[in-house]
Specification:
It contains three helices and eight strands, in the order H-E-H-E-E-E-E-E-E-H-E. It is of the alpha+beta class. Strands 4, 5, 6, 7 and 8 form a five-stranded antiparallel sheet that branches. A three-stranded antiparallel sheet has the order 1-3-2, covered by helices on one side. It is globular, with a radius of gyration of 14 Å.
Length: about 130
Amino acid sequence: MSMQDLTADMLTRIRNAVRNKSKSVLVKDNKLNRGVAKVLCDEGYVNSFETVPDGRGGLLRVALKYGSRGETLIHTIDRVSHTGCRVYSPTRALPRPLQGLGIAIISTSSGVLSDRACREAGVGGEIVATVC
């Protein structure tokens, strides 16, 4: 069975793994998923990620991060732009999840960036997901 939206699958797997207090999660590897994992790592929501060869398309192992007392750092992680309904935003209209306490992950011509990095670079793009 083929999967249509690998990024939505990645976000769902991370959401479920955080809910189950897992240490890591395996997701399908593609360029967008690697970019999303890099943004999550740079913003401090996950510890690390690595590519794991599996003989087919490859996998990403995402090491999840928790607080000092075991509390979750990712409370909500939602897909904004879907396969049938893409959501684009210019720089001045980028979302600020939780008034700046969360992040929005944006796919731009400069790569996959957080909303803060997009504002600094002055670029807009497709809003992939929001994380709070």
